[in-house]
Amino acid sequence: MPNNSDYKGYKGQALETLQKFNALVWSDVEISTADGDFKGLILPRSETADEFHIVLKIPVGYNIGIAAKRIQSINILGRKEAHYKIPEKEFPYDPKKPRVKLLGTGGTIASRLDYRTGAVIPAFSPGELYGSVPELADYCNLETEKLYGEFSENIGPKHWKGVAEAIGKEIEKGVQGIVIGHGTDIMHHTAAALSFMVQNPPVPIVMVGSQRSSDRPSSDAALNLIHSVKTASESDIAEVMVCMFGPTSDMYALLHRGTRVRKMHSSYRSTFRTIGDIPIATVSREKITPIRNDYKRRRKDKDVIINPVFEEKVSIVYYYPNMQPDIIDSLVDNGYRGIVIAGTGLGHVNKPMYPALKRAKEKNVAVYMTVQTLWGYVQMYVYDTGRDMMELGVIPAANMLPEVAYVKLGWALGQTDDPEKVKEIMLTPIAGEITEREPSNGYLIYQGGLPEVEDFIRQFRK
Amino acid sequence: MKEFIFKPFGEMTEADYQTVGFKSGLEIHQQLLTDKKLFCRCPAGIYSDNYDAEILRHMRPTLSELGVYDGTALMEFKTKKEIIYRINRNTVCTYEMDDTPPFLINEDALDIALGIGMLYNCKLVDELHIARKQYLDGSIPTGFQRTAIYAVDGWIPYKDRKVKIVQMSIEEDSCREVADYNHNRIYLTDRLGMPLIETVTGPDMRTPQEVAEVGWICAKLVRSTHKVRRGIGAARQDVNVSVEGGTRVEIKGVPKIGMIPLLTHNEAMRQWNLLRLREELKRRGITPETFKAKDFDITSLIKKPHYIPLKNAVESKLKIRCVVLKGFKDLLRWQTQTDTYFSKEISDRVRVIACLTTIPNIIHSDSRTDTITSSDWLKVKKHVEATDNDTLIIVWANDDDIQTAVNEIIIRSKEATIGIPSETRQALSDGTNGFERILPGADRMYPDTDLPPKKIAEDRIDKIKSGLPEQFWKRKAWYKELKIPPDTIDELSISKYAELFKKAVSEWKINPVTAAVILVQYPKRLSKSSYVIDSINEEMMLSILKAYADGKLTYDFILTAMKISTELGMFVEEIIPEPISENDLEKEILFAEQQMAKLKFIKDKNAGSIIMGILMNKLRGRISAKDIAQKLNLPQRSLKNAK
Ligand SMILES: [Zn+2]
Known about the structure:
The structure holds two protein chains of two kinds. Chain A is an alpha/beta fold. Chain A has eleven helices and 23 strands. In chain A, the strands form six sheets. Chain A has an eight-stranded mixed β-sheet, with helices on both faces. In chain A, strands 4-3-2-1-5 form a five-stranded antiparallel β-sheet. A four-stranded parallel β-sheet of chain A has the order 20-21-22-23, with helices on both faces. The longest helix of chain A is centred in the middle third of the chain and has 17 residues, at 157-173. Chain A is globular, with a radius of gyration of 26 Å. Chain B has 21 helices and 23 strands. In chain B, helix 8 (342-353) packs antiparallel against helix 10 and helix 15 crosses helix 17.
């Protein structure tokens, strides 16, 4: 007697129809309807799809949906189950090449189809990776470990701590570089967390993901992986970095400092950008080209400090005109210990918020100000409003990005309750999250449509 | 295999094509007339060679839904092309250039497609599943085309039988290729993403002529909707051809139906001759099991060739290799198509897969043209230990490409012992065809995880059905009964006025021939006398015909009314002249008779038509010619001259 899992994803009328004719998923069938017959393979159905249709893969490879109510009979001819498997090949070992560890947390670096949701889920092993991106063996001896299998949005403090600890172990084991596969949505949060939790690493720690799942011929996954593995194997940059496409073309990646990087487009390939500064380097298949010199160098020792702590009762508040003070009040009343405000302009909120901010201070809640403009410093002493707020205990967080300030505040509060110590941790730069100066080429948002910009775009591949 | 030698095009009879088992089917690509593209909101149908930016991509093969790699995908990966896309900001957004997620399908396009599916007598699917069809040649920057089957199992009438419509899909159009040389391929992206339908017929056609005729039927059917694009590139056909014992081969992108007969003839000939080549090989004892080929590096052997391509190769320090095909003597000169030989099959593969795009890219010992000197050939022959029964092929390329080239030479030669490789071939202007790629299979399909399945509701289908034109072959049958002139039938049957014609004849009882002439011939006459007829529309023609049917407009004034309406942009009854009174008519007749009296040399038998002419010139529109003739007591034949 077949059970429901043999009718993967079907429910209601569609399920009843399949059951009536004993037509399990993966059956090769001939379906008769009043209008004629259809031949094909019954496919699993996405759980989010309706209960009225049966999905058939017809011999030319296309899928179609047939309304269950039209089906008069199903004649089962055979069975042909798909084995969606990335071809596995043993990753070759070369004693002359460095040892690189790839830690997996999820994301779309190597994906396969999931019928249950109709979405793409990650697959991952050195063999699978070598099977689909054999170029990796040109750079290193690759080892992999799957820490988590999460989509980006499900990653949180628990995972940050776990990854930080795993990095510590790998460094202890003597790997020469670490690559972390990660979904892109909150990759910059994780990059910031690792920048604080893993201090003074002796080897490159490279975060990478893909904006196009690897089930597409034009996916950026393979090239991103190649770039990140090359960086981990060969670069002398011993920092936490994000390695993602520079331009949208398949040309080179940028290596962004983990505390200054941000996802800036919902879907573009070259979505990651260093904000308020310039990236560390570019990397192509052939070479790594630093574009600044002040990065931490690779070392032979293993003197890394792993500090995996995090206070989860921290929040970001994005200020908007007419924000009511009860927003702050409710955070305080719910036991939040830290609040990062993304304020307007130089770091402002409206006056009606002041009593709430004062109350937060009295309740020993740490409140830090960042700017929603992303570029530029919080400079609260410029206007009276800013000065007033500082009086109320709101601490300007210099040019820390709001998400970075959030991660750092959670990390600081994870270490101490003492407001002064928290302040010291927050305002002492650890990994470039606060910089002394914003370089003149740190803010370059070109305005499309201007003749000189169009000229520039014409000359270089985007 | 049957003893039969292919005759030149035009000399082959239906029976000859039957002897070789000629079979052919069509895949017709037709752009739909929509404002916007299929999965983004960019404008459709704006073409420009200008571009603002370039994007570079490489393609990698990926697994199909069933977990296998497609053969074509692997072939394209072997070619390692740098693909450049030229982007114009007016026609391309981030969807086409960076494959940001698609928007939901263009509903207008889907409506048009579903309607055409019904005209083809197809069954519509209940739920649309959008698939990704892999194209690693770069013609689509994502490496796949979004496509969905929306109708299956239809038919069209042809001769005394039905030609099967296997399936219809709605899909995005691909890029326009600008150039392809060495490892570079350049595309324009303006056409990319425009809505297109693909109609696949069964392999039901038995002669090259039949293929073209069925092509025309399909073209007329879609045009009868007036919701498809016209002009260069708006419709392209892929033609599948096979002969008995052969393989399905696809000739891609035939821009004109008129080219189909010669192309399919040549392809059938190629297949037949390749099968004969296999017989010849078998006769020589060469089968897939006994096939032998070796290759040698002869770079140091060829020192100072006079033959220019090789001289250049030596100067550029390219590698030179020689492939020995055991027992193949003279077979590279085996004819495949008109003035085309087996060596071209090999050269094509080397060009496409090893990217050696400068022709000639190989030379061979069966060739009668001068290449290297006979002493050089002897030297090579000795070095590679070839006998008089063998054929030598020499190829030259850089370190990266030479091995691919050698492999392809051996692969294609060995395939000769098996038969006809499944290929996609490109139509050439002389009616022959050349290799384009390995024929892709079902393994290149992958469900589009970005878009949910789309239910096609019954009320939607009903609504589309109510706006569909009648199938033109039904109209033609009725027109024949009505005795419409044959030269007008074809055009009227797919005219945008066909429904108006039906109304005019059935409801308003206008004479069918009169209505047909007004609707089909009059607009053409206006256009010939350089009127801009774009403003003539159904509404205008409807009001003119209705006015005529109601007796407000005389037949003689219709053309004039159309001229004035074209200039005004609409028809209004105010342009109809006042009918002439009995009294005034008498005066006009008197006046005309006086004029006639002044004229000399009038033969009596012409007098009637001359006076009609004088009167009609003056009174057109105010009274019908028939009424004047009656008044003058003239016989009906005089009317002819007066129009
Ligand atoms: Zn677009």
